Amino acid sequence: MHDHHHHHHHAGDTPEYADLAVPDRELRPLDVSRRRFLRNAGLLGATVAGAGALGAGTASASTGWDGPGRYQWLAGDHHIHTQYSNDAMYTVEQQVAGGVRNGLDWMVITDHGYLAHEKYAVQQTYADVLASRRKHRGLLLWQGLEWNTPAAEHATVFFDCSRDEAQMLQTFERLFDGNVNGTNPSSPANELIAVQGLRWLDQQVRAGKINSALFLANHPSRNGRLSPHELRNWRDVAPHIAVGMEGSPGAQADSTPAPLGNGAARGGYSNSPGVDSWPGYPLELYRTHGGFDWMTAKLGGLWDSMLAEGKGWWITSNSDSHRNFGDTLTSPSPDADYNTTGKHLDAVDSGVRHSWADFRPGQYSRTVVGATDRSYRAVMDGIRNGRVWVAMGGLLAGLEVTVFSDEGGWPVTLGGRTTVRRGGNVTVLVVARLATRPNAGGSIPRLARMDLIQGMVTGPVADRDTFATPSVRVVQSFETRRGFVPVAVFQHTFRNVRDPFYLRLRGTDGNFHAEGSIEPRMDPAGGVDPWSDLWTYSNPIFVDVR
C-alpha cells in the first residue's frame, strides 16, 4: 500500500522569498540567497494582487549553475513517421510543417526498420530531411530510426548530425534491426543482439565516427515485451545512449469515441499477453492509465523501481504520427509499391475526414527539453541528462523546478542531483505556467492539481526483473486556483533528511481518477475523449545524503 495522505496548498501561498512585497531585510539568510538566485536567473517577476509572479527565465548563468533559468526549454517530438514507413503516408515536409505550426522546436523522423526501408528509403529520406532543414531554419530536425529492437519492442535511435549520418543509420539498421535480420522473437540470444547494437553505437561514438547517439524505448508496455531486466541491461551497457522510454505513447486519438472516432484503446494499448510477452506482468500493464504507459503511471511501479537504484531513466511523450485524426488525405499506394521502392506514393485528398489514431506532431503531446542553446548537441544533452518534462493537450505552458539544499551550493533542476548533510533540509520550488490559450481541442485546459512524489533510493536490485518498489508516496498535493497571474508557485521542504531519495512531479486536470484515489484511472476500453483527461509529468531530481 502507498501512503496517499496529503496536504492541500493553494497557488496563493507564495513563499516569502518569491514575493517582492517582502523586503530582503525580513528574510532569513537562506531565503535571501534563494531570492538572489531567482532574480539572477530571470525567474523573479513583479508582485501582482498579492501573489508572487514567476516567469520563464532565459538568462545565462555561471558554470556551476543548474537552475531552470540556465536553459532554453524547447518542445519536440522524437517519434514521427512518413511515407518511408511501410504503414504511414505523409511526406517529410508535411510532417515537419505540421510540427512547426504546432510550435515544435525540434523533431526526429523515425521510419520503421524494414527490408525495403534499409535497402531503398534511408538515403531518399535523408534528401527530404535536408530539404526541410533548409526550408525551416529555426527547426532542429533529425533523421532517426524506429528500431525493431531484437527480442523486444520498438525504440527511437538517432545521432548527432554529421556528414555520414544517413550512412551510419543505414549500417546500424542492416546490422541490428529485428525486421531486417529476423531477430524479433523473444529469446536470450536475440536479447544479446540488442545489447550488441547498443555497444556498437557506443563504439562509434568513442571512435569519433558519430558525435552523439540516443536510444529511447517506444510504447514500452503495448505488447508486454520489454522485461524489466532488458530495460536495465540497456541502461547499464550504454548509459549515455540508452537513457529512457516513452512515458506516454502516441496514438492518443485512437480512443476518441464515436461518432467522431473509433472508440478504440487509448494509445493503441488493447493487447493481451502473447508468446513473446514477459510473463511476470499483470494484465493492467496492457492498458494506458490517464493516457500514460503503466510503467510510468503506476506509483511505485517499474519506472520508480529503476529510479530507486539511484540511476537516471527518463521519460518522454510523442505523437507516433502515422495517419492523423481528422485528416482527409489517404495513401494511394499499395504495399507492393513500398516493397519495391521503400516509399509510398504521395497521399491524395479523399474529401472524407478520417478517424485515424494519431495526432499531428505537437498537436497533443510534447517533450520539453532544457537545452543550453538551440543546437542539435544541446537538445540531445538535455535529453541525456533528464532535463525533460512532458504534457498532454497544452495542460501546462511551462514548468520550472528548482531544488535547494540548506547548506548552500548551486540549485539543481530536472535530471539533476544535489547533496545534503544527514539531518539537513531540502526545498523544492515549483513554478507552473498555466495555459492561457485554447489547445487544439478547442478549450483552455486547467491544471487542477500538482502532486509532489518522493521515492527512496535503495540501491541496485538483487533481482533485475523487479518492477515495483514500496518506498514511493505522494508527499504533498498542491491545488491551483485561477488568478490574475497565470502562474502557480508551490514549495515543499523535506526536513531532517536521513536517507537518499528522488522527487518528481505529476499534474492533472482533475477530471478522472481511479476510484477512491488520486491516481490516474485505467483508460476504459470503450474510448475516452483524450482532451478531457490530461496529465503532465516531470523527470526526477536526486538528493544524495552526506
Structural classification:
alpha+beta
Instruction: Tell me the fraction of residues in β-strands, as a range.
Output: 25-35%
Largest sheet: 16 strands, mixed
Number of strands: 23
Label the overall shape: globular
Number of helices: 11
- Helix percentage range: 10-25%
Uncertain residue ranges: 1-13, 45-63
What is the gyration radius calculated from CA atoms? Answer: 23 Å
Average residue pLDDT: 90
GO molecular function: 5'-3' DNA exonuclease activity; 5'-3' RNA exonuclease activity
InterPro entries: PHP_dom, PHP_domain, Pol/His_phosphatase_N, Pol/histidinol_Pase-like, TAT_signal
Biased composition (Basic residues): 1-10
Domain Polymerase/histidinol phosphatase N-terminal: 76-151
Structure description:
The longest helix has 21 residues, at 115-135. The chain has 546 residues and is an alpha+beta fold. The chain is globular. Helix 6 (188-206) runs parallel beside helix 7. Strand 4, helix 2 and strand 5 (106-112) form a beta-alpha-beta unit. The strands form 4 sheets. The protein has a 16-stranded mixed sheet that branches. The chain has a domain at 8-71 and 396-545. The two termini are 30 Å apart. 53% of the residues are buried. The chain has 11 helices and 23 strands. One of its GO terms (molecular function) is 5'-3' DNA exonuclease activity. Residues 1-10 have a biased composition (Basic residues). Residues 1-20 are annotated as: Disordered.
